Amino acid sequence: MKRTGQLKLGAFFHPTGHHIASWLHPGAQIDAGTNFSHYAEMTKAAERAKFDLIFLADAVATRDGNLEALSRWPQYMAFFDPLTLLAGLASVTTHIGLVATATTSYNEPYNIARRYASLDHMSGGRAGWNVVTSGNASEAYNFGRDAHYGHSERYERAGEFVEVVKGLLDSYDDDAFVRDRGTARYFDPEKLHFLNHHAKHFNVRGPLNTARPPQGCPVLFQASSSDTGKDLAAQIAEVLFTPLHDLEKAQAFYTEVKGHAAKFGRAPEDILIMPGLNVVVGATQKEADEKLEYLQTLIHPAVGLELLSNALGGADLTGVDIDKPLPDHIISPEDRKTSPRYAYLFKEPLTVRQMYERYGAARGQRTLKGTPATIVDQMEQWFVNYGVDGFLIQPPVLPLGLDEFIAHVIPELQNRGLFRTEYTGRTLRENLGLKRPASRYAQAAEPARATA
Ligand SMILES: Cc1cc2nc3c(=O)[nH]c(=O)nc-3n(C[C@H](O)[C@H](O)[C@H](O)COP(=O)(O)O)c2cc1C
Fold it and tell me: Least crowded by CB within 10 Å, which of 19, 162, 431, 441?
């Protein structure tokens, strides 16, 4: 049976856009990474278009590698702290959700709980936290470590981290602050709880010095692609952000994640699947094709090679001819077929330039290029056939690509009844159709007491 209803949409802002060469395009804000007005104007435009949310990625390090290439590729090299940015954006908007990434590998739960609770209060319940375990291994060097945590260790730490944050957010009951001048009582001491968390990665007494936020807890996003990542998502994520490239695989993933969540006592609608979607829109298919081709011609070969080297697990590409196929000695024929990371780059004979163009177009996410009608056909097909609950739209160039999506694709979605024309909820949770979590103390049969 086909699904009815409306899909969810996030606008994923990467400073100058998601295409690797976006900053060279005249439609990009060239100093975007440190330009608040750029983000403010885009967020207001996304709110007028009724997007559920804006979404920001993060890294707590610059990228390391060949500076000759990195100096031509600004992504993550000049980048606002996302929570600071969202606090500013909260003050120029009223409805749109504000979602920022924060790593559990190089933060402390107390700081994170406090910052997101503050953002949720300041925005009237519009905060979301994208939980990641850090994709950039160089972050370790900024936090007193010689190497990044191993994969399983960082996921174990992430699970405990999120539990502590949720516990801290429940420090005060929702009605703890009586603020009664008559009795000179500001808060009810019975309604303040010490977490007293003592486990492998964290020792946190609490309580948090912030009132329980309007949403109870910011909406928890999670970005991952591995099985371990999926396990954590099934337990904690309310929105899962992951690359999905074909409908059949998306449907299998959808069923698997929602089924897995049930094992943790969660309903299928408690977790939404929203992959990234890089949209290139044109008045005709030809125009859309040409737009992407133009962007591809802007990729500097040094950047293309650095990107491809990363995609191929750090392969040394010094001296390769970019207009010839990749020499056999760099990646063995066996690895070309079997590597889960890059086998797709060897599915057909490509030159090195074509390989990096394919990889660089969407930073690993799916690209849709076409007219508004063909783009919406695809989005609709994935939604009504239970492949996704919505999409995080990744415009290739910002602000141009967002403006085009809003002008041409949103009206087509709305005409087909697939997207809202007005906000119905007050908070991000309400707009996404997610429940507000009750405090753990309200749920407990015997409410816990403060034990200082
Ligand atoms: C779609 C997607 C987006 C991600 N965004 C970020 C990010 O903004 N910051 C970050 O530090 N890590 C990010 N990551 C990295 C993950 O947190 C994780 O460290 C990495 O994907 C390895 O875990 P996995 O094997 O479960 O995918 C992202 C991963 C995916 C799949």
Answer: 441
